[in-house]
Design a protein that fits this description.
The protein is about 25% helix and about 25% strand. With about 350 residues, the chain is α+β, with helices and mostly antiparallel strands. Strands 7, 8, 9, 10, 11, 14, 15, 16 and 17 form a 9-stranded mixed β-sheet that branches. A 4-stranded antiparallel β-sheet has the order 1-6-3-4.
Amino acid sequence: MANNTVNLDQEDLFEHHKITVDPGQEPVRIDKYLINRIENVSRNRIQNATKSDCILVNNQAVKSNYKVKPFDQISIVLPHPPRDKEVKAENLQLDIVYEDDHVLVVNKEAGMVVHPAYGNFTGTLVNGLIYHFGKSDTDIDPPFRAGLVHRIDKDTSGLLVIAKDDYSLTFLARQFFDHSVERSYSALVWGHVKDAEGTITKNILRDPKDRRRMITTTKAGSGKHAVTHYKVLEQFNYTSWIECKLETGRTHQIRTHLASIGHPIFNDEPYGGARIVSGPSFTKYKQYIDNCFKLIPRQALHAQSLGFIHPHSGKEMIFHSDLPDDFSSVLSKWRLYSQNKQEIEHWK
């Protein structure tokens, strides 16, 4: 069993099993093959893994009906470390906005990594959840591998739903796959967004020159389909406060899409938002921007609402999260600047 991160488009995936198919192997469905090769695994788990593109043959994701061939290299990759990298419970302060026997909704603070990965094995949301579930009567076994349905970036704040049992995980994951989950984000972006509403439809792939970031592409057959809808909430002089709704959920989708149309998120360093993109060039304005960056020392992006169908009750659940203090403060500062623009720009 290997412990290395797999070099794929998916982020933070860990190789749990690697199997080389015997030279005399007859063609057989991969789900049936793996059930006979891996201890204590069900066909349902294998099929769920294939739906999530977590079973690879020769470094390519396959479906459960793929028939293995001699010398195939099979890898099973998952978004958590193998068991020899045990994830420990930590008593972290979590902002839990809803919990029942099946799901939990948490309001993640900016700066918290969602899941342990290389360089971040402590202080993550999962570390805190393990501790939380260990203090209550749940059926989740450490190291709490099953519950993450989706993620948000370390420096993005806001709402996440966690599944507390396998059925809930599968049910919720299907909603994300079908794009039926409602997710809206607040973002402060550089520049005056021209249209009051709009849709960005651009494929996304990882930047081959910088693995930290994603880029858009117009090349046929390249990247993953991605759609972001946006609406302007408030215009300032050199920035705009907008709401974004995800139709798809690609890595860094909002950040990548907004940067691609010339409106990077405020203070989003990998996507060009941690420099002056719009506004005058005089010294006082630069000082003003530096002060804004100090107010919100991360990308100005917040997962503000989350809606899904409850896996057991069938009821529609909708949650909203207030803007965190750093986001509210920088909005207020820009609002004040806009109101006093003429006076302020006499500083030059």
